[in-house]
Amino acid sequence: MHEVLKSYFHNLTKIEEEKLESLSPYFKEKKVKKNEFLLKEGEVCKFNYFVISGCLRLFSVNNEGFENTRYIAFEGKFGTSFTSLITGQPSIEYIQALEKSTLLYISKEDFYFLVENEPSVNKIYRNILESAYITTQRRIYDFQGTDSLERLRSLIYHQPKILSRISHKIIASYLGITHYTLSRLKAQL
Amino acid sequence: MHEVLKSYFHNLTKIEEEKLESLSPYFKEKKVKKNEFLLKEGEVCKFNYFVISGCLRLFSVNNEGFENTRYIAFEGKFGTSFTSLITGQPSIEYIQALEKSTLLYISKEDFYFLVENEPSVNKIYRNILESAYITTQRRIYDFQGTDSLERLRSLIYHQPKILSRISHKIIASYLGITHYTLSRLKAQL
DNA sequence: AGTAATAGTTGCTCTATATCAACGTTTTGA
DNA sequence: TCAAAACGTTGATATAGAGCAACTATTACT
Fold this sequence. Notes:
Two copies of one chain form a homodimer. Chain A has helices at 3-12, 17-23, 82-87, 108-117, 119-145, 148-158, 160-165, 168-175, 179-186, and strands at 28-32, 37-39, 47-53, 55-61, 67-74, 78-79, 94-97, 101-107. Chain A has a single domain (3-145), classed as Sandwich (Jelly Rolls), CATH 2.60.120.10. The model of chain A has no long low-confidence stretch (mean pLDDT 95). Chain A is built from nine helices and eight strands. Chain A has a four-stranded antiparallel beta sheet. The structure holds a DNA duplex. Chains A, B: It holds the Pfam family cNMP_binding. Chains A, B: Residues 11-115 form the Cyclic nucleotide-binding domain. Chains A, B: This is Crp/Fnr family transcriptional regulator. Chains A, B: InterPro entries: cNMP-bd_dom (IPR000595), cNMP-bd_dom_sf (IPR018490), RmlC-like_jellyroll (IPR014710).
C-alpha cells in the first residue's frame, strides 16, 4: 500500500500491516494533468479519491455561470462528491485537479463494502464525515456572521497553504466574493 | 423504547425488537420549557439529544452580539453540538429549545460506546453525519452563489415546516440576513 | 523564446442589504 | 386581563461588495 495512505490509516485507527496490505488492492493509482476533470455536473460519482500529491477542487457552477468552490483536498486527504456518492444522484458539482496530481481511487461499491465490513475503514469514513462536519459548521458561521475580510483572515489562519498554492480567482470563489474584492482585501491584511 | 425513536431506528437499520429494548436504558427522557437552554457557549457538550416533540435550535453569537442559527432539529431528529461532542472542546454554540419540548438524551460516553459496539447505532450515526454533509453542502453553495431571496425560496422548498413554526427573527438568523430584510423579501415571494 | 491567454490590480459606478427610527401587532407572564 | 415586552413592518439613509473597463503582470503553449 502507498506510504501516504498507510500513514493516513495509522493516524486514525489501529491496524496491522497484514490487514493494511489486504486493503491495498482496492485502491488503484491514477495520474492526472493540471485542470483535468474527474467528475462533471450531471454525472453520477462512482469513486472516492485519495490525494497522494497535488490537489483536487470541488466546485459547482450557479445559474449565472459563476463558479463556487466548496472544498480543496490537498495531499493526504480524501476528496470526492460524497453527496452524489451517498445518494447515487447526479452530481451538482465538478471534481477537478488544480495541479498535476497522483491519486488513489476506490470504487463506490468497494468503499461502502469496506465501510460495512472493515472496522478500520468504518473508522476512517467516520473520521472523514466528522471532520467535514466540523469544518463546514465553522464555514457556515463564517458566511452568516462575518464580513469578507474576516473570512479571508479565517481562511489564512486555518489553511495557510491555500493562499500560496491556489489562484486568487479560485480563493475568491471559495470565499464567496469576486476576485476584484479579494484583490482589494489583500491590501488590508 | 419510545415509539418515535423506535421508528427512527427501523427506518435506518435492520434491528430486532429485543435489541432495541436493550438500547432503551441508554436514553433518558427530559422535558424542557420554551426558550430553555441545554448548552451554552463555553460549556463542553456532554449529551446527544433526540427530539420527541418540539424543536431545538443550534446557534452562536458573533463578536457584535448577533445571533446566527446553524440548525433546527424538529421532532424525530437528533440535535447536538457534534463539534464539541467529537472534539471535547468547549462549544462555540448554544442549544436552545424553541418550543416546549420532550427530548431523549444519551451521554457522550454511552453514545460513542454504542457507535463502536452496536452496528445499528454505528449505522445511525453514519446516517446523521451523512445527512448533515448533504444538507451543509447545499447550504454552503446557497451562501456562496445565491442572493437572499433565492436562499429564502430554497429554505421554503426544503423545509416548509420552518416558516410556519419559527419566528422570523430566527429564520433571518438562519439565512444570514437581518429581520428587516426578511420582512421585505416575504413581500416578493 | 515569443506571443497568446490567463490572472491580478485599480478607479468608477451601481445595487443589495444593513442600519436606524418610528410605529403597529402579537405574545407573555404577574 | 392587561401592561410590558417581544415581534414585525416600512420609510429613509448608509455601506460593503458587485460589475465594468482599462491596464499590467504572469503563465503556458508551439
